[in-house]
Amino acid sequence: MLDDLDFTIALENEFYSVVDQKDFREHDAESIYDYLRIRTNLIRFSDYLKRYILRRLNINEPIHKYDIAFYQNYIINSFNENGVSKSFRETKSRTSAITKNWLTQASVKREVIFLLGFGLNMSVEDVSNFLINVQKEHDFNFKNPFEIICWYCYSKHLKYSDFQRLMNYYKSDLGNEANEDLDSTTEIRQMFYGIENEKDLLHCLLSIKIENGGKWFSITAKNNFEKLYNTVRAIIAKQYTEDEIFDAERKSRNYLERMSSSDKISMEEKLFRSEIIKKSARDFLPGDISDADIEKALCCGMPFDENGNLMKYSCSTLSSQFDNKRMSRKRLNDIITGKTEIDRFDLITLNYYIHAMNDEPNKNKRYLDFVNNTNQILTECYMGEMNVKNPYECFLMMCVLSDCPMGTYSDVLEMSFSADDSN
What we know:
The chain is mainly alpha-helical. The protein has helices at 2-19, 28-39, 45-56, 68-81, 95-102, 110-119, 124-134, 145-155, 160-171, 188-191, 198-211, 219-259, 267-279, 291-298, 319-322, 329-336, 344-356, 363-380, 391-399, 405-418.
């Protein structure tokens, strides 16, 4: 605990050493990029996974002494022995390709860690360590039925088949059962600590199902996402409208300048036509803003390929820090259609844009407003407060302290795609 505290304090000191330097105002993007690129010591997920496997085998040698095939064989054999599938969802990807990704990626999605927890027969402490110290994310979310069931199974050393049974029960029968013993007003956060058996677990899950109106995804997270999503759309609509007005006024002025020397049209007619041009400006509404518009706003600075799609993060020198954090139009559509679950980075990114586009002149107040408001949202969703140890969250906190947060944000991302990775 002391080491982790010392590490956190050291990172906070580094954070302020960047944003408090005298030339930060003139060189904010460069300072942030250099910090993220050079000074952030990120534990690669793949390296930690390899180290974890060697420890399980009681091998005290460097991870690079063994090739990927060695680690792949261990994972595949362990998954087979424990009766664990290669994914929580149906997939056509080959097992060899999936395991290779795990053994080469700097970070992965949370569900990969939960799957490995079953496949490698991890303890609950091991899974927590991967979540907190490797991914730099929050611990188990006890407002998420999936994560609660995973936690329970790890804690009780249950098999993957037990997880599937409990998960299927939650999705099907649980919500149809009356439970007179359940105190629906009991806080879930207090309830899960007392879980000792399946009956206690089902009490807790039923409470969540009641709270979520029988829906699988957290209503709290969904409500917060929708509120942020609609606010972002309103900001972009306002910006588009202002651009339209500016462009229409420019065209109106240009028309009057072109017609100033003409005597074929009366001045009254010229002014009348000029006003028509001004009024041609489109008034955008939030409903006019598409997911592609939001992608354009939140992924500014990232280049597009010849097909009009965002370049892969693997082309960025910050890929290891920012992978799986991009708010693309596909990501937005998957969330809205219920194909994927909302994570903390979705909420943080949307809220960053809202605060970055705020006209607040005091950057310190803007920073505090952003951090405090984001922490409030994350706490409501039981996702843990913002963490300076997470490079992406640190990046946003630094950007919001610059004079032009979205400009700095865009510049850093652009640098990461144009920089020479050989340095």
